[in-house]
């Protein structure tokens, strides 16, 4: 959509201010809300997804609590509970879509927020798009983290990732290990390091507030259609995607494993990514 109109605002939620950015026609019939990864990253690395906006599809991004341009005032650990993330998303949904159903696209950690929201407010979810999403249980998540760590160590042995990684600067650490997240180092030029920003306090507080989790039984009751996109070379491994697919027993679920692709399919395999998302969103039109 050429000359896509951009609007920025803030939405009040749970004693904090959430930064919201919309791309496209605010009167569009369909709304797609994008949930960034982290916890603690901002939405900026997902700006390219605004090209999904059309005259009939409003694309919405927002910075989750204590991230990006949203309020970063000191918050206790219980302010990072799953229910709080859900209420933040619902405040955004009400602000941009009123009482309409919305499509939710969750990348990585954002997939967890999308799934919990769909469990809590199924009446407001038109579909779920889970892109390189974390899986629905702690056991699967931990196994994926171990696979990612193994990938990092392999690349350290090859001299692609530094042997000494930052232990004090979370953003520097993330930038150091980014080669593990892509299929080919050539893709790194398309993943601008300056689009990543992080609040290092959000991640530990969020995971501590969540604790051990298992969404599988609750996800069996989800009925809106689900698209799962996952890179064949994602460092966390395709078992994450398979576990997610298997949890949606009563939803029409499509799992697409994208060859030669890591954690950022809209950069690494953009043609496949955008075609799959477009076809999914327009499957009934």
Element layout with pairings:
Elements: E1 6-13, E2 16-23, E3 30-35, E4 57-62, H1 82-97, E5 102-107, H2 109-120, E6 125-131, H3 138-157, H4 170-177, H5 202-210, H6 216-219, E7 226-231, H7 239-247, E8 253-258, H8 265-268, H9 270-281
Parallel strand pairs: 3-4, 3-5, 5-6, 6-7, 7-8
Antiparallel strand pairs: 1-2, 2-4
Helix pairs in contact: 1-2
Key phrases:
8 strands; single chain; alpha/beta; eight-stranded mixed beta sheet; globular; 285 residues
Please explain how this structure is put together.
This protein is α/β, with parallel strands linked by helices and 285 residues long. The model has no long low-confidence stretch (mean pLDDT 93). It is globular. The chain contains nine helices and eight strands. Helix content is 33%, strand content 19%. α1 packs across α2 (109-120). It starts with 5 loop residues before the first strand and ends with a helix. Strands 1-2-4-3-5-6-7-8 form an eight-stranded mixed sheet, with helices on both faces. It has helices at residues 82-97, 109-120, 138-157, 170-177, 202-210, 216-219, 239-247, 265-268, 270-281; strands at residues 6-13, 16-23, 30-35, 57-62, 102-107, 125-131, 226-231, 253-258.
